[in-house]
Amino acid sequence: MSDTRPPQVLPSRKPTQNLERYSEADIPTERGMLRTVVFRDRRNGREHIAMVVGDVAKEGVPVRVHSECLTSEVFGSLKCDCRQQLDRALDFITQGGCGVVLYLRQEGRGIGLGNKIKAYALQSKGYDTYEANRQLGFADDLRSYDIAAEMLRSLDVRSVDLITNNPLKIAGLVEEGMPVRRRIPSRTEHNPHNVGYLKTKRERTGHLIELFAEEDTEAKAG
Prior knowledge:
By secondary structure, the protein is an alpha/beta fold. It contains eight helices and eight strands. The protein starts with a strand and ends with a helix.
């Protein structure tokens, strides 16, 4: 069940000069035609993508703000649930005929691919995902959502129904002036390789993750 709440509204913000709407085209995919819009961050040259379905110039647009995860999405790593979340968000907007998936180039919660693999090596020695980042000298999460909010404004989105388990994404968009009307849970299945990672996110940073099989087992035992 989704969380429904009044829109969180802040005064609209003027576009900055940080974001360039660089190119766009319709791309045929296994899910149908997706309007693909590439944005370029002038501060660092990084390119981010919006996958758009239907008319999104309105209130309550289903939106997933998704950070790049090469290991999962390309190579099939089972250490996280990123690929499942991306796939299910794309399914949601294509089946519903409306929505946006923003694909942000923020690998490893912002630390980059090489450092992410270093963190994985530390995790194999017993550190959790946040402890590993700190051992490398990074904060728990270096991602920001200013570019995400600007991308949505460029697409004329007025408010969003955010597909997420992460309260920080909701707060990040609202802080950047993009109202969040409600949350749509991003449900995925866990496996023996990522269940500890998911539990850590839930316990340490308040992710709203439901681990169905685990909870069913605990209920039966109780």
